[in-house]
Amino acid sequence: MKLFLVVLGVTAALAAPPLQYEPIVTDYHGQIGIPEAARIKAYENAMDFDGSRIVGGSPANLGQFPFFAGLLANLRGGGQSVCGSTLISSNRVLTAAHCWRTRQFQGQSFIVVLESAYLFRGGLRINSNRVQMHSGYNMDTLVNDIAVIVIQNVGFNNNIRSINLASGSNQFAGSTARAIGFGRTGDSSSGGITNNQVLRHVNLPVITNQECARVYGSRTVISSTICTAGSSRNICSGDSGGPLVLNNVLIGVTSFGAAAGCERGLPSGFARVSSFNSWIRSQM
What we know:
Distance between the termini: 67 Å
Strand order of the largest sheet: 6-5-2-3-4-8-7
CATH class: Mainly Beta
Radius of gyration: 19 Å
Low-confidence stretches: 1-17, 47-54, 187-196
Helix content: 10-25%
Number of domains: 1
Order of helices and strands: HHEEEEEEEEEEEHEEEEH
Mean pLDDT: 85
Structural class: alpha+beta
Largest sheet: 7 strands, antiparallel
Shape: globular
CATH superfamily: Trypsin-like serine proteases
């Protein structure tokens, strides 16, 4: 009888369906970045400007995040996409590798936008095609989703300043960090975009990788990933490549969210900067 029960248990376990993890967006430019750039440009050209995009976030004042850089990706074959990035020295900017390359699209050049709360107008605008992606970047799982952009030297002032990089073994779980970006405010057919198109920020609780992996699986969430909890406040489409900051230290680079949308209360994933600290410094 015991043997029969053991065999029955093993058979049931083998017959159980595999775990179904939440899918992530991998065709970023086609699904999000290109249409997002067109929508942002159209609304920025409107007459009314007073802020919006990260879900549940607040508008940012010029100079509030002097390390933030908007990013316009000019793609091979035409088209323009939108991302965020972070100034880490006078001539280096950090972003997500998928802002430069996906299975479907390859970047041709970036326009790095500093000293502006808007993406298509104002500020210091720098062109660059000197991009170094991490050699371990995986376009399907978004593992090692990090890249460094080389730009001309910029002078620091109240509105342009680099940020320190996280280092060490602190996992930051239980801390509240701040995400910054130009992305959507919601999942509506219009992209949640209104006439309010300035840079925004939102506070998000950092969770353990174990919690995050229960949603996205261990192929996507590895030790060099850092995640924040999902709620009514979250990063959203178009925030890719932007910073996750804690106590004026860069701890994450926005990498992925649920393909189901940013208002579903699911976690968001970032490249863990402390895991890439040595690699980033080798590119400076």
